[in-house]
Write a structure and sequence with these properties.
- The protein has 10 helices and 11 strands.
- The chain is an alpha+beta fold.
- The strands form 2 sheets. It has an 8-stranded antiparallel beta sheet with strand order 10-9-6-3-8-2-1-11, with helices on one face. Strands 5-4-7 form a 3-stranded antiparallel beta sheet, with no helix packed on it.
- A hairpin with a 2-residue loop joins strand 4 and strand 5.
- Helix 2 packs antiparallel against helix 3, helix 4 crosses helix 5 and helix 7 packs across helix 9.
- The chain is globular.
- The C terminus is likely disordered.
Length: 273
């Protein structure tokens, strides 16, 4: 058993940017994916990552760029002493029209940029934002733009769904997750029996179809909460039974309650992994 300590926070100067400060100490965590493009930097130690059948370890001096369509988890098979790290989640569309086509191609990409100067600039910038320095918001935004435009040169792996039936199921969930389709309905869309579908989806994507569906809902909820959408409205818009169901699902998948997340204030959560 390991543990992860997470602090989510935002700034009023750019509420579409999400910041995460965390520490990880061994163990495995549930597979997940983010609601935007992420840039991560390890401050100390090393962070072992698992991307289905591909493994990578992030070290200080490196920046990890990852698209929002990449399921991943911590790799509990690697014995490391834990680490502290920071992650910026960026929607990509904010003032980035000239990079729009390139970002579409990077949605399922993993890139590691080994550049100690950029690594230091990134950490200095996000720490400045956390301390309330408004000028650092523009610095972090510009750094993100440069990293996005340069990411293709540093790609190390690309996630793709290789089985046609699983691709069909994933497309169906992507288009209908707000309606909360059940496993039988999704399996029918894939052309497989529910049992065969369930096994193939988990093997190919790295998580169950039910978790994938809930992750889409929670990722949509994060964007809505950041935009100030009332919790009651988004609860039913995203197909949750009630606010209690939404809150439990959101807290389980993010490690932070939706009320704390919506507030945009620093909020610390501890979770076993």
């Amino acid at each position: 058993m390991g543990s992860i300590s997470r602090t989510y926070w935002r700034t009023d100067q750019a509420r579409d940017l999400d910041f995460l400060t965390a520490s990880y100490n061994r163990g495995e965590a549930e597979c997940h994916f983010h609601h935007g493009f992420t840039i991560s930097a390890v401050e100390s130690g090393s962070l072992p990552m698992l991307f289905r059948d591909f493994r990578a370890i992030l070290h200080p001096g490196e920046l990890l760029f990852m698209g929002p369509d990449v399921p991943h988890s911590f790799d509990g098979g690697h014995q490391v002493d834990g680490c502290s790290y920071r992650t910026l989640t960026h929607p990509g569309g904010r003032n980035y029209r000239e990079l729009e086509e390139m970002l579409k191609c990077r949605r399922n990409s993993i890139c590691i940029i080994r550049d100690e100067a950029l690594w230091r600039d990134f950490l200095r910038g996000v720490k400045g934002v956390e301390e309330g320095e408004s000028r650092n918001v523009d610095e972090v935004d510009e750094l993100s733009r440069n990293l996005f435009s340069d990411a293709s040169r540093h790609e190390i792996w690309k996630f793709d769904v290789r089985i046609p039936q699983v691709r069909a199921a994933k497309r169906y969930i992507d288009a209908n997750y707000r309606k909360s389709p059940d496993i039988d309905e999704i399996a029918t869309a894939s052309g497989l029996s529910p049992r065969h579908f369930t096994r193939l989806f988990k093997s190919e994507v790295g998580m169950t179809a039910h978790r994938y569906l809930n992750q889409l809902k929670v990722n949509a909820a994060r964007k809505m909460l950041a935009a100030g959408v009332p919790m009651l409205w988004l609860t039913y818009e995203l197909g949750f039974t009630d606010q209690s169901h939404f809150s439990k699902t959101f807290s389980k998948l993010t490690g932070v309650s939706p009320l704390r997340y919506a507030s945009g204030t620093v909020s610390k959560e501890q979770a076993a992994v």
